[in-house]
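Design job #97: recover the sequence.
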């Protein structure tokens, strides 16, 4: 695949030669403009999720396109592998899809996990509010019976 260039070393590392995620992430040149743009894209998506955190319907509707992007990442990987010279300094897009899984899918799935957490928190708040309403109705009914 690829590797940071050391003096006298080969630039490429085969995918099977990567032993861990941290080693793989260190091999990526994160200063390339398109990777900075992709990171900015993920930060914007996360910011939108945080802004929508109290609106369950909007969060759910927002999560669907994110999951669709993850679903189509294989097609994005194939397209990027064919046209990488137009935007990247190196060919990162392997046939196994490891690169796109690490830099594209993982942040999207983490954002989706955060959205699910927000949805669960909203459900918990809603259940608490429902319980309070039930208790106040029961208390009111009890007071009405006593009169």
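Job complete. Output follows.
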């Amino acid at each position: 695949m690829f590797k940071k260039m050391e003096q006298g070393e080969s630039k490429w590392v085969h995918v099977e030669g990567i032993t861990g995620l941290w080693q793989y992430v260190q091999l990526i040149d994160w200063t390339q403009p398109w990777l900075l743009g992709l990171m900015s894209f993920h930060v914007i998506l996360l910011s939108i999720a945080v802004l929508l955190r109290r609106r369950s319907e909007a969060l759910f509707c927002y999560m669907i396109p994110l999951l669709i992007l993850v679903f189509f990442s294989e097609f994005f990987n194939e397209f990027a592998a064919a046209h990488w010279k137009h935007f990247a300094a190196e060919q990162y897009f392997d046939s196994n899809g490891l690169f796109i899984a690490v830099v594209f899918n993982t942040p999207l799935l983490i954002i989706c996990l955060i959205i699910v957490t927000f949805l669960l928190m909203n459900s918990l708040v809603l259940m608490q509010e429902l319980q309070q309403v039930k208790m106040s109705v029961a208390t009111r009914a009890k007071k009405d019976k006593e009169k």
